[in-house]
Amino acid sequence: MVQNASEGSITSDSHSSPIQHRPRNYQKFPGAQYILPSDEEEKARLELQHRVLQRAISSRLIIPPLSLQSGDKVLDCGTGSGIWLTDLSKQVPSDVSLFGIDIEPRLFPTSELANMQFSVGTTTQLPTDWSNTFRLVNQRLLIAALSANEWPTVLSEIKRVLIPGGWVQLLEAKRWGTEKGELSVKHRKLLEELFASRNLLIDCSVQLPHLLKEAGFENVHVEEYKLPAGSWAGKDGEETRDNFINVFRGMKTPILNAGGFGYVDSEEGYEEWMKDMSKEWDVMEDTTVDICVFYAQKSA
Ligand SMILES: C[S@@+](CC[C@H](N)C(=O)[O-])C[C@H]1O[C@@H](n2cnc3c(N)ncnc32)[C@H](O)[C@@H]1O
């Protein structure tokens, strides 16, 4: 079956015809370019990803130097399954209010605590009545969602909804795979084409320090981590591998709908490639996934 409609508001600028495949569910928020699916499989992946990321950053849920007090409000933009907020709720006073926003509600938790609220909306245009509301805004892994034009808008929206002296924290992927592996190198080229076709900012991690300063944030900090990926790095390496190879599996529909960009011509071919790339990561001992954590403050 050829999948088109359920991938949402795609503006495909492919030069070739869509490649037939079994589709997954994708968001349909007007104007959104996000290329990962939203289904039970993705919810499970986001749980694994949360574990993998938290392990890399010493289990810190809050990165900037702040301690939340009664009455404070926290926002998680692009919250997904709300797993970061749910974890945070166990560490903060019960009268800290926790808000999650996402273009796609399908992964929201089915039961919420009294101090948690989830709403549908875009981080490019947060509700107008949220100005000067939050002490902390978290946003994690929107690399496959935001265009070069949208990033400055998003940072300015986040700044608007922070209280004076409030903090933003962002986590993004910077680089992945191995430069020595043929399949990884070819895959990087494919992703560059996919991201470019939607104007998504594949090097957002390189640009964010500058973008944060441009948006008027102060005290801009960056931390970088290299996560070993593949069985050569033991159980943790296998988890990192599985999470990120499954990210790439999730991009199958946008890639095949766009005709494969000259890199792949069938669903089976794409699946085989992901399987073989996973094996490549297992034996290439330089394979890592590099992430960056950014935090910055709105002036008091
Ligand atoms: C890779 S997932 C990460 C989810 C969550 N931040 C986490 O780290 O577990 C990205 C999420 O961003 C959401 N998203 C994509 N574009 C968005 C936008 N413009 N505004 C709000 N959420 C968006 C997606 O629906 C998805 O749930």
Automatic annotation (TrEMBL):
GO terms for molecular function: methyltransferase activity. It holds the Pfam family Methyltransf_25. Residues 1-25 are annotated as: Disordered. Residues 1-19 have a biased composition (Polar residues). This is S-adenosyl-L-methionine-dependent methyltransferase. InterPro entries: Methyltransf_25, SAM-dependent_MTases_sf. The lineage of its organism: Eukaryota, Fungi, Dikarya, Basidiomycota, Agaricomycotina. Residues 74-166 form the Methyltransferase domain.
